[in-house]
Amino acid sequence: MGRGVKKVVLAYSGGLDTSVILRWLRDVYRCEIVTFTADIGQGEEVEPARAKAEMLGVKEIFIEDLRETFVRDYVFPMFRANALYEGAYLLGTSIARPLIAKRQIEILDATGADAVAHGATGKGNDQVRFELTYYALKPDVHVIAPWREWDLNSRAALIEYARQHQIPIPADKEGEPPYSMDANLLHISYEGKALEDPWVAPDEAMFRLSVAPEAAPDQPTEIVIDFEHGDPVAVDGERLTPAALLARLNRLAGANGIGRRDLVENRFVGMKSRGVYETPGGTVLLEARRAMESLTLDRGAAHLKDELMPRYAELIYNGFWFTPERQALQTLIDGTQEKVTGSVRLKLYKGNVIVTGRRSPYSLYDQEIVTFEADRVYDQRDAEGFIRLNALRLRVGARRR
């Protein structure tokens, strides 16, 4: 450890873990440290991270508002695929890591640093997501992963190290919080401690983005989301930037008890983990997008997308954002979105997202064909030959039996 590293770019939140890492890097690697803090809508002020880094002696401090970039270039492309990992997880943490890691590499190049560091543990997925991005963008970069190197193997050990080195400890850390959190504009995840037993229900006081469905208003909230080329652009007729639109949906959906999921998922490293998630705006957006596609996508294209989605979601979950296969899938997916334009009306009610209408100038829905009234477009007698041809192999097989 410590050999040859002169300057390292640390993904720095200002919290206990990364503040301990900052000091540990200085003591063990004896190198200059550049901190990078990304505002991706985590709901907390990021400027205090600057003061804390300065107090710890850092000279080069990068704090950037990446909310629009995050939603426009990462969240929305992922949602064009209607991506769900294992049929349930909306990938809120997974999709944020490639952006943060990419900016670390760019800052490394700009500052002349020769290493990057992150605070992900050796048990989780984030270490993979960070490092696959690092290596994809800068193949020979030196990566420092303190959780795989040091002997601070518990929260108590981190707190004791912080006390010994006069590192401020957030008040909520002193009392050993019952869970760990990761937040951004798409979601909040909760893991660990009390949630490690999958039979223990989450504490209602834990949630930050949503009310409980039973505590939501007794009257539904009706909204209309407008789409252009697969992406949402307006809510109730008001055009919004990507980040502002997702924030608006978070507020509306959260107030109606929407977006909570309690999952046991399969981590890339091989273990199962229990996580509780709040993704209010994303839950609404997924339902609205599928309703829009149901009207505008050809059957073959829609079914192909659904077949590819689990593979696409797995790539993102496992950290393979900057890979040829993800980019190839993205090109195919984006190619289906040209006509995914129109409006979807929804009711938000006590944890439910209810589609009540959809319309599009590119609709493939033809009332003249589907009507049960008389029409001159569809000859129902044609169905007989269609059915007999599809039954041919079944009839042949039955005769042989």
Descriptive report:
With 401 residues, this protein is of the alpha/beta class. It has 3 domains: 147 residues, Rossmann fold (3-Layer(aba) Sandwich); 177 residues, Alpha-Beta Complex (Argininosuccinate synthetase, chain A, domain 2); 34 residues, no CATH class. The protein has 13 helices and 14 strands. The longest helix has 20 residues. It is elongated and about 85 Å long.
Essential attributes:
14 strands; Argininosuccinate synthetase, chain A, domain 2; five-stranded antiparallel beta sheet; elongated; single chain; Rossmann fold; alpha/beta; about 400 residues; five-stranded parallel beta sheet; about 40% helix; 3 domains
**Helix percentage range:** 40-55%
Number of helices: 13
β content, as a range? 15-25%
Fourth-level CATH superfamily of the largest domain:
Argininosuccinate synthetase, chain A, domain 2
CATH fold descriptor of the largest domain: Argininosuccinate synthetase, chain A, domain 2
Write the layout of secondary structure elements.
Elements lengths: L6 E5 L4 H14 L2 E8 L7 H9 L4 E6 L1 H14 L16 H15 L3 E3 L8 H12 L4 E3 L10 H10 L6 H4 L5 E4 L4 E4 L29 E8 L2 E5 L2 E2 L2 H14 L4 E7 L5 E7 L1 H17 L2 H20 L5 H12 L6 E8 L2 E8 L7 H4 L11 H19 L1
Parallel strand pairs: 1-2, 1-4, 2-3, 4-5
Antiparallel strand pairs: 6-7, 7-12, 8-9, 8-13, 9-10, 11-12, 13-14
